Every structure is written in C-alpha cells, then in structure tokens.
Amino acid sequence: MQKVIGQSVLVGMCLIGLSACQNTQHAIKTAQIRYAALTPNAEATVKIFCSGTNTCEFERIGNVPVVSDTTHLVSNEAIQKGFVRLKASSTLQSNALYLTVPAQQYEVVVRFYPISIDRAETIHVIHPFKANKAYTFTMYRDRVKRANNLLNAAVPDPLCVKVMEEKRVVRRFCKPYNVLTGLGEFVEQKN
C-alpha cells in the first residue's frame, strides 16, 4: 500500500513539474540541442547568427528545415545533423539559436519579426560561407533624410538586412516601401 502511495506521489510530482513548464515541447527541443552540441564536428565550421529584432528564426539552410514557421519548433533533422546550437538557456527565449554548419555555399532563409510574432519578414540569401568565421544577419531600419513634406514623411523607412562576416559588412539588402502595393522585395545594395 505504501509503495502504491509513494508511486502515486512521485507520478503526481512529475506531472506538476511538467505542467509548470510553459511549453514541454520547447523543453524537449532544448535538451535535444544541448545533447547534439556535445558531439564535436570534425569539419571546419561556420557559425551563423541573426539579430536586430526581438525575434528572428532560421527557416532553413540549404534543404534542411531549421525552425517551423507555424509551431516555432526546431526540426529534428537540423538537431540530428548538429546544425543548431543554443546561445540562450532555452529555445523559448528570443533569438536563442544559432547555426554551426560545414563551410560551403548555402541558401539561408531567415525570418525576422520586426513588429510582432504574427508578421514575418523573410529573406533568402545565397552566400559562400568561409571556414572558421562567424556570420550575423542583422535587421535594421535605414533612416533616410527626406524632404519635409507630409507625403514623404508618411512613408516608412526601408527595412534592411546586413550580412556581417566577423565585424565587417559583406552584403546588404534593403526592402523599400512600395507606395502602390504596400509591399516590397529585399534587393541587394552595392557597397
């Protein structure tokens, strides 16, 4: 009888512990990423970060999905390949992930959330990543001086993404606001 009560208490405490977590799936993914990080990569690797907004996520690198746009969970394939690393204590925190991949050319798809988690700005960049370098995709608003009339003042500043290799900007993309459609595409700017 005491054994049954003891087991019931233990199961109850485990359930309370699990319900105390904000999101069990995120806790599981965090543990999986930490475990995958323990296996060293023999190849020359590249670190890829994103910053500039409260939240940014890597949608995919090459053909490997990284973070789902609907669930915001890290894919098992990216974890198993050892591409995903934590720079925060949990995947629930903003900008908690970065990538570690073998050096080569990839298409990287990054989702930035400049206003809210409901509206993503997505950029696709094909870039040759060099070994033993760190790259950062940073979103910012390009504050432009304009003529002081009401129409020009009403147009939002363009969103831009700079790709930095270590501390040096190697590429820059801007998305100008189109007055007719309200939409725009990221276009590479010449430095």
From TrEMBL:
Lineage, opening ranks: Bacteria, Pseudomonadati, Pseudomonadota, Gammaproteobacteria, Moraxellales
Top-rank lineage group of the source organism: Bacteria
Listed name of the protein: Lipoprotein
